[in-house]
Amino acid sequence: MGEWIGMGRRARRCYGFDEIALVPGTQTVNPNEVDASFEFAGKKFKVPIMAAAMDGVVDVRFAVEMSKLGGIAVLNLDGIQTRYENPDLVLEKIAKASPQEATELMQAVYTKPVKDKLISKRILEIKRKKGTAVVSCIPAHAEKFAKLAQAAGVDIFVVQSTVTTAKHVAKEYKSLDLFKFCKSSKVPVILGNCVTYENTLDLMDTQASGLLIGVGPGAACTTRGVLGIGVPQVTATVDAAAARDFYFKRTGRYVSIITDGGMNRGGDICKGFAAGADAVMIGSSFARAMEAPGRGYHWGMATSHVNLPRGTRIYVGSTGSLKEILFGPAKVDDGSQNLMGALKTSMGSLGVLNIKQMHDVEIIIAPTIQTEGKIFQVGQKVGMGK
Q1: Is 3 within 8 Å of 13 (Cβ atoms)?
Q2: Where are the alpha helices (DSSP H) in the chain?
Q3: Does 271 fall in a domain?
Q4: Which domain CATH number covers 276?
Q5: Structural domain contains residue 14
Q6: Given this model, what pLDDT does residue 225 score?
Q7: What is the total count of domains within the chain?
Q8: What residues make up the domain containing 294?
Q9: pLDDT tens-digit profile of 272-319?
Q10: What does the pLDDT average to over 113-121?
Q11: How many Cβ atoms sit within 10 Å of the Cβ of residue 156?
């Protein structure tokens, strides 16, 4: 499998969202009658699009609003919300910083330690407003933060790093035992991130309830440029979904695949589901919401790394409310609003009734799909030409 790239080395071709298209089937369905919900750990969520644990996207207010609309927003326990009593003052500074000042400012901002009491406080604030409390942290903090979060009533706990594996080799520090962690957790655990079939299978053995798929595709992430690692999202999702299906046949336990990053419009999200995702996670599209704490700015989770930043601050603007971004009516022509309307309309055009059936639609390799016949849009930088 793969092509020769030099003496003795083969490489396989992998695909991203812009290189494929979905093929309509032999029937169509009324979009109002399709079921686009996401079932996870015994609960059903109307919106299968999760908001990423990024400080420019999710705070308490955003998490509560996302819950009211039927979705999940993940709060970053390693972020500004748990380091500062008044995070708005810090977020305002980040928004006002020049591009040259932004990374250095964030490196300084994130040196302030996380406060245990703020972890409990933020979760309780979400729960008091009847929101679904979902939080995330890096493996090094997982054991301590999980105890605090569970005591505060958290609903789902996410352990997330650039690349997560079931086996981590380290002599300098004690690594997190994911098998022990997931087994002892009183709430469902999501692990991430990974991109290969083999790693997905290994992580499923930890008894995690879901896995985040994707390394470096996010709009504000620079991991692929800094470290040179990653797999295009379509291929990564197809491989992970294949592992999920094999694991389910072997064990009878279904582990949700959540494609994380690289999607900023409705069509990308639809392709993510067609590639095999049970849900998707996005950041930049939600950073555009008026409810987002970033004030129109969005930055990667590793932007603040002291020695090797692997993210940057980008300006995405504030284009509409969270409700408009999810359900419309869309006020822009680039597919970044009414994401649920796009998903349901796509499902109807493909002739499927639910997300599971989306996994079986025909996918074709179509490298010209974004530009074919779009010369005026490209020339005028409107619609698909932006």
Answers
A1: yes
A2: 60-68, 87-96, 99-109, 116-128, 139-152, 178-184, 197-204, 223-226, 233-251, 266-274, 284-287, 322-327, 339-350, 355-358, 375-380
A3: yes
A4: 3.20.20.70
A5: no
A6: 87
A7: 1
A8: 23-385
A9: 999 999 999 999 999 999 999 999 999 977 666 777 777 788 999 999
A10: 97
A11: 23
